[in-house]
Automatic annotation (TrEMBL):
Keywords: DNA damage, DNA repair. The lineage of its organism: Bacteria, Bacillati, Chloroflexota, Anaerolineae, Anaerolineales. It comes from Anaerolinea thermophila (strain DSM 14523 / JCM 11388 / NBRC 100420 / UNI-1). It comes from the Bacteria. InterPro entries: Rad52_fam. The keyword DNA damage applies. Residues 163-181 have a biased composition (Basic and acidic residues). Belongs to the RAD52 family. GO terms for biological process: DNA repair. This is Rad52/22 double-strand break repair protein. Residues 163-201 are annotated as: Disordered. Transmembrane segments: none annotated.
Amino acid sequence: MSQQFDFSQILDALQEPFPSHEVEFKPGATNREKTKALALAYVDSRPYIQRLNLVCPDWQDEYQVMMQPDRVVVLCRLTIAGVTRTGDGECLLAGEEGDRAEPNAVTTASAQAFKRACVKFGLGAYLYDLPQVWCDYDAQKRKIINPPQLPEWALPPAERLEKATSRAVEREARLEGRGEMSAEPEPAGEPANLSNPGEFVMPGGKYQGKTLAEIAKTKDGQDYLHWFANLDGKGYQGKGAGEAQRMARAFLAIQAG
């Protein structure tokens, strides 16, 4: 077991969604014309292994392979922090027409069993909760066309923060009558980090040189940030004041959830 985490913390870390670029979609059921298919989300085994290695490097897996006349069945026993849970997978040994063998049947069934065992610990479980969406389907390539966008709750925290920050900044730009993001160059000095406005450094005023996150931790920091975000043209008017106010508003919007 990892010395840094107890079991509940391990489960919490395993349950975090995968980065969106690791989520792919394969076709499920199709319509009669074979022009539409249900998009089924899945993630390759490698990100599962990477997450396990990161969260609890001493995990273990064991496999039991059972051959049947028409298919191979695999049972995976996955042990994390001393707790063992199982998952099963299977793969047909012949194609749809029954005239060709599946060369990677054991590998395919093992990967399915492994991921199903991971789900018992919460890893990848959220994929089963994604809405089923009908998408355009290329029957010749057996491929989903224009796969659906992941809902925000199915994104990892960093991507959710980036989206929330982007919305907050765009909203403040609209409130200032711009209609779109400003094309003006950044003011000289510390550049704004739109992925984390808490890292923005105040260019002047009472807390010059401190980040918004540092200001928020001071005794009157929250009151100051709310006051500063609602100055409406009053108060500090030095270089970078407009950008500082937008970032303060974005920071407070993210804190408010």
